[in-house]
Amino acid sequence: MTMAEHDPRILAPQETDFDVETLIVGAGACGMVAALAAHDAGQEVLVVEADSLPSGSTALSAGLVPAAGTRFQAQLGIADTARTFARDIQSKAKHENDADLVEALANGAAAAIEWLADRYGFPFSVVSDFDYPGHSQRRMHGLPSRSGRELIDRLRATCEAEGIDIICNRRVTTLYADGKRITGAAATRGDGGEEKIGCERLILACNGFGGNRRLVAAHMPQISGALWFGHDGNRGEAVGWAAGLGAATRHLGAYQGHGNVAHPHGILITWAVITSGGVQVNSDGKRFWDESQGYSEAARHVLAQPGGIAWAIFDSRIAAIARQFADFKDAEAQGAVKTADTLDLLAEQCHLDLGTLAQTINAIPNPGTDAFGRQFEGPGLAPPYCAVKVTGALFHTQGGLDVAPNGQVRALDGTLFPNLYAAGGAACGVSGSGDSGYLSGNGLLSAVVLGRAAGLG
């Protein structure tokens, strides 16, 4: 089928093939969390997914959800509060976020994590051996493999165990609306046929528009040439439906980038290799920015270097920390991580200037503040040394439909649609208006917490 046949449309109500109480578009983490919450609330739920298997952008991530004040933190002696979390979110985004939405996500995160743990047995634990930029406390919660694939697989298995129907190979192309009330949707099957589904409530969990190059170029031209590292199914249907419905959108120029994707392997290298004391150098062997700002901003800085590439430089101590992430172990298995006993040997492997790399690494103050304003606390890098060739990538968009704290969609006139909800990447998140406002975990924060709120209604 052509893209034109997939363009999102709004039509008047039509006779449907069947009806459900709550219809959810998208079976990523957001859609499946929303489905579990709606099911828990006693609603009849149907999830439709365009792919042959639930996946979404979550499967490409580390699967980490930030939450403050959980018992998992308390077990480690971490004193954290939702108020502190909200302050961190707003500080990173220069207070550009909707304050009510920030408060709702910060307050709802611990309850969402503990609900998944207690109700469904998700074995969450806190990443406790390194810090993420912008977080004043260690509050990133993940499953044992530190992999988004594990999170998606557990959510899918849980939905199946609960008897929640997830129908795949169905791309929703059309919404039926009577004014502000949504009456149903049409889903196109893989064979080209169409199914018309009536609903009392619709939740858009179809993520953002990072896979739509036209929309990316229009709203975030500075990253339009970057590697797209999200899910190709993120085509921006929610934004298209918003235009047809008269729904408000916000911060469409916001996105999460990542400047540490192994090249050409296309494997995410955890930012722990940087926050634990590593640095990035360009092809001349020189550092070029303050890496402590965050991995989203890193995409822009890396892409501005010759060839749009850089090298992440760290050591074996840091590599041991990074191995808790399945992606890093995959990168090692594929030969993306180079190791050497001296900086000169490492420079030779990476085709960097021998003397320049050694001069760059030896100039790092431990402890102290460097010329870029980055503060190092030590220990310094020591042999054996490690390096990964990386590039910048677009992970997912952070702007979207303007929503109330429960996920209910706002119209252009400020009123709420009575039965239309959006969450995750389909909704405007809490990352401000660009890339520098992204606080680690903001994507899954919106997917899990706002997805649960939308499911509960």
TrEMBL record:
Question: What's a Gene Ontology MF term here?
Answer: oxidoreductase activity
Q: Which residues form the signal peptide?
A: none
Q: Biological process GO annotation list?
A: steroid metabolic process
Instruction: Spell out the InterPro entries in the cross-references.
Output: FAD-dep_OxRdtase_2_FAD-bd (IPR003953), FAD-oxidoreductase_2 (IPR050315), FAD/NAD-bd_sf (IPR036188), Succ_DH/fumarate_Rdtase_cat_sf (IPR027477)
Chain ranges of the FAD-dependent oxidoreductase 2 FAD-binding domain: 22-431
A Pfam family the protein falls into: FAD_binding_2
Q: Cross-referenced Gene3D superfamilies, in alphabetical order?
A: FAD/NAD(P)-binding domain, Succinate dehydrogenase/fumarate reductase flavoprotein, catalytic domain
Designated name of the protein: Fumarate reductase flavoprotein subunit
Species assigned in the record: Roseibium aquae
- Taxonomic classification: Bacteria, Pseudomonadati, Pseudomonadota, Alphaproteobacteria, Hyphomicrobiales
